[in-house]
Amino acid sequence: LWNVLLSFPGLLALIQLVFLPFFPESPPYLLLQKGDKAGCLKAMKQLWGEGNYHTEFEDMMKEKAVTKGTKIMNVLEVLREPSVYPQLSTMLLLLLSVQLCGLSATANLQESIIPYVSLGVAVSELISIIFCSSIIDHFGRRILLCGGYLLMALILVLLETSLLLSDHFLWMRYCSVILVFLFLIAYGIGP
């Protein structure tokens, strides 16, 4: 029943995808990134119910005033900033730990190819982190989550199909590996 186990995260992603559009955007995102005061107050009321959220709104306005003069750095500027090296080291350690998770054995490949698949997994996650950090401010979390979950669901269906056909067509194993890479990229960009 490994195929049922493999499809279980797809079911959870589908459930989240169905309910996600009914939730409002994050109030701090609406106020700090989009500058939408009315949308922020509406989201607060929708999330927390009716009430006076003047104190929370004022706190966010103070945060906006503090961060107004702060320069938003791109990915290369972050990589050159020594103050973020501990966080980058932690992130790199997490990326490298994926090598031990067994994804490279998913497609039943020859042992000589598995190190390249492991390297591909790490590169896929790095690509997704860089890409997501570059576009999240432009699109917002909701679009990335919905798009990521949709893409993950599609990739899981294709992955299941390629794994079922891999006994009949040897080249389908390589398709499975590519789909694992794409799944990791979709997961990193979305959820």
From TrEMBL:
Record bears the keyword Protein biosynthesis: no
Molecular function GO terms recorded: D-glucose transmembrane transporter activity
InterPro entries tied to this protein: GLUT (IPR045263), MFS_dom (IPR020846), MFS_sugar_transport-like (IPR005828), MFS_trans_sf (IPR036259)
Listed transmembrane segments: 6-24, 113-136, 143-165, 171-190
Major facilitator superfamily (MFS) profile domain mapped to chain residues: 1-191
Protein name: GTR9 protein
Protein's cellular compartments: Membrane
GO biological process, one term: dehydroascorbic acid transport
Keywords of this entry: Membrane, Transmembrane, Transmembrane helix
Lipid biosynthesis in keyword set: no
GO cellular component: plasma membrane
